[in-house]
User: Fold Succinate--CoA ligase [ADP-forming] subunit alpha from Streptomyces dubilierae.
Amino acid sequence: MAIYLTKESKVLVQGMTGGEGMKHTRRMLAAGTNVVGGVNPRKAGRTVDFDDRAVPVFGSVADGMHATGADVTVVFVPPAFAKAAVTEAADAGIGLAVVITEGIPVHDSVAFTTYARQRGTRVIGPNCPGLITPGQSNAGIIPADITKPGRIGLVSKSGTLTYQLMYELRDIGFSTCVGIGGDPVVGTTHIDCLAAFQDDPDTELIVLIGEIGGDAEERAAAYVREHVTKPVVGYIAGFTAPEGRTMGHAGAIVSGSAGTAQAKKEALEAVGVRVGSTPTETAKLVLAQLEDRQRAV
Assistant:
C-alpha cells in the first residue's frame, strides 16, 4: 500500500521537453514510474526518446489524459507559467498535481491551490521535491536509489532532510515519502499526510519533518492528539536560525516567539511525539519506536 502514488499511477510531465523536465523524466522512468506523456503545446505530436522508451508529447493536459488515462501530472515549468499549468491540470480533472517549481509568487500559489482544491485536484508543493513510493513510482526529483519499500511514512517540508532520513532509515524502508514544500502556501499539509498515513494499513510509523516559521507543526500536533493512533517521530529544522531572517524556504521565518523550533518541539512532545535534536537522532528514535512495538507484539 501507499498514499497518493502507486505503481498504477499514470504520470504526465508538464515541461518535459525543457532541461530539468528531460533530466528528471529520465530519472523517474529509471525508477519505474509509468510516465505516459509530456505536455508542451508547441511540440504536440512529437515523441521524446529516453533510452529504450519513447514518450509522446501532447498539446494539453486534457489531451494527454484522454489519450493515456493519466491521473498524475508533475510540473516542471518556470515560475511565471506555474499558475496557468496547474489551472490547466485542474480544469482537465487530473487527480494529483506535483509542483516542483520554486520561486512562484505567493499570490499565484494561493490562486492555483485554491482553484485546484475546488476542482478536486490535490496539489503537492509548490517548491517541493515531490513524492516517492519506493519500488513503485517516483513523481518529482527525490533520489530513488537511497531507500527501499518498507513500513515508515514520511512527510517533510524540506527536500534535503527528506533524503537524509530516507538514507538513514534505508534498512527499514518507506511506504511513501512526501515532500510537501516549504513555501508559505502549499497544497498538501502535514495534516493531510498524517490522515492518509493513519489510514494506510502498511504504514506502521510516521516521521514528520518541520521547520521554523508559521504554525503548521503546532496544528499537526493538535491533529495527532485527536486522530492519530500510530507512533509519530518528529524533527524540526532551524534551532539555530536567527530571529527575523528567512532561512532557505520562504516560509521559514520567525517573528518574536511565534514559529520557533523550540515551540514546535514542545507542541509535538506534548502530544506524545518523540522529537529528535538532529536527523541522526531522529532516525535512532524511529528505530527505538519500532523495536518497542516489536517487543509489545
The two ends are 22 Å apart (CA to CA). The mean pLDDT is 93. The first strand starts at residue 10 and ends at 14.
